[in-house]
Amino acid sequence: MLSFLSARQSGVEDPLRLRRAQSTRRVLALELNKDRDVERIHGSGVNTLDIEPVEGRYMLSGGSDGVIVLYDLENSSRQPYYTCKAVCSVGRSHPDVHKYSVETVQWYPHDTGMFTSSSFDKTLKVWDTNTLQAADVFTFEETIYSHHMSPAATKHCLVAVGTRGPKVQLCDLKSGSCSHILQGHRQEILAVSWSPRYDYILATASADSRVKLWDVRRASGCLLTLDQHNGKKSQAVESANTAHNGKVNGLCFTSDGLHLLTVGTDNRMRLWNSSSGENTLVNYGKVCNDSRKGLKFTVSCGCSSEFAFVPYGSTIAVYAVYSGEHLTMLKGHYKSVDCCVFQSNFQELYSGSRDCNILAWVPSLYEPVPDDDDETCSVDQAGPELRDPPASLPPECHHCSATI
């Protein structure tokens, strides 16, 4: 660590390398925090979590009981042991509460004053955080599995919605209507995700085993259909142009948007080049996935080599994204984990499970990292987890002051 500081001070190394190396060390030291609890509000399973990107302080959760809870993650007491309190909630007695299970919650990417939620009650709701009232409601003909707002878009306010039908629908928050429909899948849409790099690029995953990339400005269909065989002829005709050999129920771009991770019910996770659509053939081994709906996993941000956190039964499996190495299993839940979200400011992880609990995983700081005086370690000599990834560095996170 001292050599990193010295190199940064003298200008020999890029200042980002120290930051990324330290972030990597913290991620590799993640463990269940016994000193931090998240207040238990949900009476049934927790399906979805999201932390606002402006301050990284407030977290939303959505449950199978239709309840939405807003938590404050900051330790205002300054005590070692504390509980992340619920600031407010949309409970069963709330007039705008969802009737059935909430499948996705997401903060508006640029401000904490608004968030969205979607449910099995076939509605997508836009909420005013300050009044906790539904400002707008989009109603669909099919059950909603997933929705997503672009974290990078500056020229549109489109929300992509995946339903039990084969069509992807785009809702415009400015006009309050469904602007257009993307057709190409044959079965229900289980996951959708906008690229964090390009405003108009959208990825969709379906039960038809296919993953498609769209430029929503085009009217001629999708840009790419990902092929696990990279164009080579497969023995089974039905597996042609398929990303997995089962349902594809999870999507997640890397923080720089250059790669896309997908998971399927064939118990496989695959890494794709998001520009060419090429399967990078990284082998993650068996990734147990028996979810009948969308699986919400996450990827780290700001590390030397990014890490994927994937719900794996009652545990969370941690993988090195670019090498495929299975690093560890985070154990603490009593039932199946359905979602997890990464807090990039402090390299923390929060997970939600069918046991109704939300757990906090934080870096273990009990054992100090040895100094370079005792153990010489530079970035070039370090393991692959401390080296720069093959892709370019992700953009810096921009924080602005916002209040609820």
From TrEMBL:
Name the UniProt record assigns to this protein: DNA excision repair protein ERCC-8
Cellular-component GO terms for this entry: chromosome; Cul4A-RING E3 ubiquitin ligase complex; nuclear matrix; nucleotide-excision repair complex
Assembly and binders: Part of the CSA complex (also named DCX(ERCC8) complex), a DCX E3 ubiquitin-protein ligase complex containing ERCC8, RBX1, DDB1 and CUL4A; the CSA complex interacts with RNA polymerase II; upon UV irradiation it interacts with the COP9 signalosome and preferentially with the hyperphosphorylated form of RNA polymerase II. Interacts with ERCC6/CSB (via CIM motif); promoting recruitment to lesion-stalled RNA polymerase II (Pol II). Interacts with KIAA1530/UVSSA. Interacts with a subunit of RNA polymerase II TFIIH.
One Pfam family this sequence matches: WD40
Top-rank lineage group of the source organism: Eukaryota
SMART domains noted in UniProt: WD40
Chain ranges passing through the membrane: none
Main location: nucleus
Keywords assigned: Chromosome, DNA damage, DNA repair, Nucleus, Phosphoprotein, Repeat, Ubl conjugation pathway, WD repeat
Entries under InterPro entries matching the protein: Rad28/ERCC8/Ckn1/ATCSA-1, WD40/YVTN_repeat-like_dom_sf, WD40_PAC1, WD40_repeat_CS, WD40_repeat_dom_sf, WD40_rpt
PROSITE patterns: WD_REPEATS_1 (PS00678), WD_REPEATS_2 (PS50082), WD_REPEATS_REGION (PS50294)
Region (Disordered): 372-393
Sections of the chain in a coiled coil: none
UniProt function note: Substrate-recognition component of the CSA complex, a DCX (DDB1-CUL4-X-box) E3 ubiquitin-protein ligase complex, involved in transcription-coupled nucleotide excision repair (TC-NER), a process during which RNA polymerase II-blocking lesions are rapidly removed from the transcribed strand of active genes. Following recruitment to lesion-stalled RNA polymerase II (Pol II), the CSA complex mediates ubiquitination of Pol II subunit POLR2A/RPB1 at 'Lys-1268', a critical TC-NER checkpoint, governing RNA Pol II stability and initiating DNA damage excision by TFIIH recruitment.
Localisation per UniProt entry: Chromosome; Nucleus matrix
WD repeats: 39-81, 95-137, 182-217, 241-282, 330-361
